[in-house]
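--- STAGE predict ---
source: upstream dedup step, 1 unique chain passed
mode: sequence only
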Amino acid sequence: MLTPYQAQAAPSLTHIGARPRPNPAAGAEIVSYFLDCLDLFIRKAVEEALSNSRSAPHAATSPDKVGGMKLAQEVTGLSKPRLYALVSERGIPHKKRGNRLFFDREELLAWIAEGNRAVRKQNER
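--- STAGE serialize ---
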């Protein structure tokens, strides 16, 4: 139960789930109270940050839709020389602006998917 002094001096901390303030004369209780409040505040902040990061992907972690050679290497797993050879043969989907090559992630994934070979059945061997 709060004393009249505590009721006046203590702002409501129910938004972070803290307990009422202790008597200011008790030093150990103040430290304990502070640590409890700090712990609760940090837990709430971490929970909120985690829930926000799960619900909305960050720009840094979301894959680029269009990119250069690095994107093509990442998506296909092919080396730079092999990618350049495929570009010159027009064997891989790409776009060119000036001297720059651009690759679309979705087009590369579709290109990889259409390259699937038919699976042989055991009796066809």
